[in-house]
User: What shape does this take?
Amino acid sequence: MTRLLIDGILREAADGRTYANINPATEKSIGQAPNAGATDVDAAISAARRVFDAQRWSQDHAFRAHCLRQLHQGLVADREHLRRIQIDEAGVPVALTHSIWLDTILDAVSYWADLAETYPYETHIAARATLAGVTSQRMVIREPIGVVAAITPWNFPLPLNIFKVAAALAAGCTVVLKPAPDTPWSGTELGRIIAESTDIPPGVVNVVTGMESSIGQALVADPRVDMITFTGSTEVGKRIMASAANNVTRVCLELGGKSANIVLDDADLPSLAAGIAGVCSHAGQGCALPTRLLLPRNRYDEGLAVAQAAFESVACGDPNDPNVIVGPVMNARQRARILSMIEKGKHEARLLVGGGTPEAMPVGYYVEPTLFCDVDPDADIAQEEIFGPVLVVIPYDNDDHAVEIANNSIYGLSGAVQGGDVDRAMRVARRLRTGTVGINGGVWLAADTPFGGYKQSGSGRELGMDGFAEFLETKSIALPA
Ligand code: NAP
Ligand code: MG
Assistant: This one.
């Protein structure tokens, strides 16, 4: 049983309710999580509001840096416990926890510790005539926006909790974190480490977990909340934005994607196999994974052969097996959704690999790595986010056509370009309407690199200086020269 963190106290839900945390690989409960209700959410927001309004936290940059360094150490000290949780509650393959699902994320916390201290919170504009003709000197002050509601999904649970909480704290905000119902412990254990290992004052971070959607809805509708940072589906993002409009609450939204991997005709095809199979990492439950593979028609068969071999050899199974990168999907509902998209795909395109559930894994929410080719760019499987280990291959005629297909999406989260001539690949990358692009295996995911989406993939940025600035308000003060 894990506990909520409310106003510095680790405790059960006010009415004592709990719910089972299910391991998607075994379909069995690994333990209980608090099932918070309206009273708990209200207490969490009240605490966050009170401590923000007292102002010490928001103004003491060095103290916040000190607290974030303690948080980093506390997380590192509990690393193996956190690894177990990622595997057991979210089905993350252990191999992936050695990189962006855990290890490298913990170390990223020091980025925000440093930023808390070094960010230029005050800048000066030299005295000169203003628009009203009065010569004035001006100072621009960046201040934390206030109480932040952080709402996270289950697919990348601990990393997103850490990104949102650490950045908000570094900026001087206070936080109410609401993790996804399927992955409560990635939130409650972060709360426990904050309570037990840091000097972060009571009320600065609050964690509420629950299985009912009413708690998230209450959080985003509350006028005491100054900003919502949300990662999840585009559909829910729209609902949150609409709810936030009532109070003109700032929203930062990281939503879905259907990113394209453009293979130019001068690419070294055999070297792309690992990257292509990487689309199946964590059973394809990654918003920025390039789930559309665009192959040039003049090398189509050669490219398909590489993709097919990569998909046939990708290791799917028990997330505790160190060779596996494809574990189970999150729950039975997700599996049913993915399988129904695959069935649709069988009528829309040619199935090359997979297409069902693996026979070897009768227990657990597994889906076979599935590869479709000859896919029409407008087909449902080429347009809708599937959020499973499914790749669609689309042929194209020339670079212009590839760009047109890549941009033919309501989403604009990420993309990739592969090619022998880097300048040509760069030209293609510049034309993509997406928030990130990786060229020839280059990786943009880093604490200091802004991440986010164009179009319906979101609004605002996470990570980097841009992501940090989302948590700030801007105040301009003028004085006579
Ligand atoms: P989801 O259904 O959108 O839920 C995400 C979070 O929002 C959960 O904590 C959920 O909890 C909460 N929520 C749902 N409705 C809400 C409402 N009306 N008000 C406030 N909170 C609400 O997403 P998911 O199923 O967990 O995750 C999969 C989706 O997330 C995929 O579509 C994926 O593309 C997207 N995603 C995007 C990114 C990114 O960075 N762009 C990263 C990861 C995932 P409740 O259900 O209990 O309300
Ligand atoms: Mg679970």
